[in-house]
Amino acid sequence: MDYIDEDLLQKGIDQGEKLNAEYVELRYQDKYLANFQLRDGELVSTTGSREGICTRVLIDGSWGLAASNDISKESILRLVENAAKMAKGAASQKDSKIKLADVEISEDKLVSPRKISLLDLSVEEKLKKLLDASKHVKDYELVKSFIINYNEVVDKRTVFTNEGTKVQWEDMKPTLMTYCVAIEEGKMASGFTSWSHTCGAEFFDLHPLDEVMISSAQKATNLVKASLPPSGLSNLLLDHQLVGVFAHEAVGHTAEADMVQAGSFTKGKLNQKVCDERINLVDSPTLKGSNWEGSGWLPYDDEGVKGKKTYIIKNGVMNSYLTNRAFAYELNLEPTGSARAYTFKDEPIPRMRNTYIEAGDLSLEELYEVIGNGFFLRSLQNGQADSSSEFMFGAVECFAIKNGELTEELYQNPVLTGNAFEVLNNILGIGKDFDTNLGQGFCGKEQPAKVDAGGPFLAVKAMLAGGN
Q: N or C: which end of the chain has fewer CB within 10 A?
């Protein structure tokens, strides 16, 4: 995996300027993908790479975009010409003109944090880890079905613009998921564990696959014996993962500039109080967990803009949106480095990176006391939210808290539901222990994107949907 010849990109830039483009951008990508899945003993693996280039030009306030997996000089010049034709054609049909916010010009080359390259570990070694981990299923007689899924991305990107930006970076992200289904006397329950980071092959030391498999099998075995939790307004303690998905899904999406302009909950609320003043909600190009870098690591976005730590909410006040350059100009905000494209063929759109709520000052034991009588929800199972910030998240485990102490009383399939900003106005306490883990870390807004999220343990008053 080598970077593209910079002279080829410069020739494309020169061609765009000859065609009177106001702005010329060339974006190169070489992306390696591998996926290994073991489902009930059946192993399936796929590996492959995709290389290509995209050009965008802005002429008379309109975009033109063209992409190809042919990275020859002739192809690049042809792409620029085609993009220019599209931009000119679009401009003749439009009254409104796109303008771009000014940005700092960057020249940089860097690689993502890692100790050992993922590519230094052979495919055979990775498959053996899956097969060895699967042997633990036999120790759990109630587990009738299982999945182990491991995938990795090694992504090289280059962005050149006619303004002088020249940035290149290599990124690698491993992802692991184990899933077990237990059945007993007609009852069924699932146990689920997942991790994704920006790192190298040390990932397997951080999360030994045997331990991750055992965790899911044990969860399924315990949960199949558990009943459904009671429903109603409750005092709830959320773990790092649930706080993360809450920050990402229920709040973060409402602050992406394209969603804002389409009428999300946060539209028109800049500089207004939207939640408890103790809440600081951040989206950042980097995020350090307890032992790893967040899987949303993104030093530069796909417009070549340096990533900026952005307070979406600061002291309970709506502080900023996540922007690309066009939306930043339109909203009179600074670009946040949030323009992201999944492949070289895609249009960069405003996306989150690593999204989290900042830590407070309460210990876990103090949070139990704050809850008094309620429930501790752990690990994300599924969830959804919409642009109004209404959400519904299913957790894997739910433990009762009684008289300020955590008990072993376990319930299955708890569902947290409500309006995110109403919940953030009903904060009971914010923990001081911070960590990140959005599980598999894939966001599916229009295009897939690797993201991460997290936060402290968070005590809230919210609606719990169960079955009793």
A: C
In a domain? residue 1: no
State the Cα–Cα distance between residues 187 and 192, nearest whole angstrom.
Answer: 17
Q: What is the pLDDT of residue 94?
A: 85
Shared-domain flag, residues 196 and 283: no
Q: How far apart are alpha carbons 268 and 247 in whole angstroms?
A: 20
> Is the CB of residue 245 less than 8 Å from the CB of residue 415?
no
The range of the structural domain enclosing residue 115 comes to 6-223
Cα–Cα distance, 241 to 435 (Å, whole number): 8
Tell me the per-residue pLDDT of 154-183, one tens digit each, with 9 for 90 and over: 999 999 999 999 999 999 999 999 999 999
Q: What is the dihedral of CA 267, 268, 273, 277, to 10 degrees?
A: 40
Q: Domains in the chain: how many in total?
A: 2
Residue 452 backbone dihedrals phi, psi, to 5 degrees: -145, 170
Measured between alpha carbons, how far is 367 from 349 in angstroms, rounded to an integer? 39
Q: What is the pLDDT of residues 416-460, one digit of tens each?
A: 999 999 999 999 999 999 999 999 999 999 999 999 999 999 999
User: How would you classify the pairing of strands 281-284 and 232-238?
Assistant: unpaired
**What's the pLDDT tens digit per position in 347-404?**
999 999 999 999 999 999 999 999 999 999 999 888 889 999 999 999 999 999 999 9
Confidence at residue 288, expressed as pLDDT on a 0 to 100 scale: 86
Amino acid at 354: N
DSSP letter string, 315-382 = TTEE---B--HHHHHHHT----S-EE-SSTTSPPEE--SEEEEPP-SB-HHHHHHHHSSEEEEEEEEE
pLDDT for position 299? 96
Three-state DSSP at 464 gives strand
What residues are paired with 176 via a beta bridge? 150, 195
Number of Cβ within 10 Å of residue 291's Cβ equals 12
Residues 271 and 402 in one domain: yes
Q: 291 with 297: CB under 8 angstroms?
A: no
Beta bridge partners of 215: none
Angle at the Cα of 41 (from 37 to 42), degrees rounded to 5? 55
